[in-house]
Amino acid sequence: MTRYKMEEDALTAVLKQLPGWSIREGKLHKTFKFSSFAQAMGWMMSAAIHAEKMDHHPEWCNIYNRVRVDLVTHDMGNAISSWDVELATKMEALAVAMVK
Asked: Which of 30, 41, 66, 96 is most exposed by smallest CB count within 10 Å?
């Protein structure tokens, strides 16, 4: 996938498709909440595998059953890019799959 900086109008449209995601401090942001620490860590490992395949890595923090995620593309001037949206979409799908 070709990386490109997300323009404001495109980003607004994308946020409508990503429940719970927002822009915070110039980054694509969401805090995920899971039923347990083990589930949160399992989700992080699954997301990490996908991120590694993309060679695109999140800024994230785990506290018990919560994972705070911030996505930005550092080598594009710390802008939100199509890669951030792709990774957020994958993270969202993984979280939904874990709940089922």
From this structure: 96
